[in-house]
Write a structure and sequence with these properties.
seven-stranded mixed β-sheet; 7 helices; 17% helix; 32% strand; elongated
Length: 361
């Protein structure tokens, strides 16, 4: 069986970071999200992966290959954001007549979920994976009877159930003629929910499997930070990292490190606190303040400021001053420069779309 990873979406919920990089390049514990997706494929016993990309969003297939150890990697390209079903259609030439596993490129599976999927992966038939949620109107929703899907709806205003699609599907090649028979949704996209619902209405059995453990939608600020915490928890950190003199230390100062954290090479730490749940990319400079529950990309500089619940883009600069300065609940783009005012939480860019109109493609 092959895997299809959908990574062509623009990632508007992670703007402005995604103005210059695709969301599957977002680092979790200093490894890009796509590398964690490849890990999941290997653990599921899948050796061949088709990645659906946008042709103008780097990194492309050559750069992705460095994270695909042991996998046969193919790249398909979706030129326009015409929906998940259209993205699946671009992968058809690589799939032939085989069933395949479809995974959205911003979905991270926990260990429990991977173990569950691996147990039934090679059973015949189409499957969707679902989980109860408190806000089903924000997801594709399944109506299920006796373990079988009877209806699928995309982000209904009045959800008929609380079973949300988690972005993981096992599909037979019959999905492709179904895609050809659907029409664009009101938002102008070919929805994978509509294509699978077409199968159901035509009499094909589609099983609904309630996913064990958590699934993590990494396509928003809160979701990405939750995924970073989950990866750091899984990897752990040595107890002797709680307090240490920083590597590459300037003339003075110490720092306190509270695990779990991930700290890349050539990082300068001085008079600061890092952690818990902080990922600091290679070549960053952190002087003064504290970094907690945040992702800081390579080459960023944070001076005399506290960073909480934030994503800081590559080579971005946060320049504080005297007194406490706070950056919280915010996404900074690559090379963005911010001079926070004292005790101000800059919450203007939480990486959300208020009308929730973006596809999770």
């Amino acid at each position: 069986m092959k895997a299809v990873l959908l990574c062509a979406g623009k990632g508007t919920r992670l703007a402005p970071l995604t103005h210059t990089r695709p969301k599957h390049d977002l680092p979790l514990s200093n490894r890009p999200l796509i590398a964690h997706l490849f890990d999941a494929c290997r653990r599921l016993g899948l050796s061949e992966v088709i990645v659906v990309l946008h042709p103008t969003l780097a990194p492309g297939a050559d750069e992705l290959a460095q994270h695909a150890d042991g996998l046969v990697l193919h790249a398909a390209y979706q030129d326009e954001p015409n929906g998940l079903a259209d993205a699946v259609r671009t992968a058809a030439p690589f799939l032939g007549v085989d069933r395949f596993l479809l995974l959205l490129g911003d979905t991270l599976l926990t260990d429990a979920a991977i173990r569950q999927v691996a147990q039934t992966l090679h059973e015949p038939g189409s499957k969707i994976y679902v989980q109860p949620v408190e806000n089903p109107c924000q997801y594709g929703v399944a109506v299920v009877r006796g373990g079988q899907v009877v209806r699928l709806l995309e982000k209904p205003q009045r959800p008929p159930s609380n079973l949300a699609l988690v972005g993981l599907y096992q599909l037979e090649p019959s999905i492709f003629p179904a895609i050809e028979r659907i029409q664009p949704s009101p938002r102008g996209e070919l929805e994978i929910t509509d294509a699978i619902d077409r199968l159901v209405q035509d009499g094909e059995r589609v099983e609904a499997v309630e996913l064990a453990g958590r699934w993590l939608d990494c396509g928003s600020l809160d979701g990405a930070l939750e995924a970073n915490r989950a990866v750091l928890d899984r990897l752990g950190a040595p107890n002797d990292m709680r307090t240490r003199e920083p590597a590459h230390r300037p003339a003075r100062g110490t720092c306190r490190i509270t695990p779990p954290v991930a700290i890349g090479p050539n990082v300068v730490l001085e008079d600061c606190e890092v952690g818990p749940y902080a990922s600091i990319g290679a070549g960053c400079v952190i002087r003064g303040g504290a970094i907690t529950n945040s992702i800081v990309l390579e080459g960023a500089s944070i001076e005399n400021a506290c960073c909480q619940n934030a994503i800081v883009g590559a080579r971005a600069r946060i320049v504080g001053g005297e007194g406490s300065r706070l950056i919280a609940d915010r996404i900074l783009g690559d090379e963005e420069v911010v001079e926070p005012t004292p005790l101000l939480s800059l919450a203007g860019s939480r990486g959300r779309v208020d009308d929730d109109s973006e596809s999770r493609e």
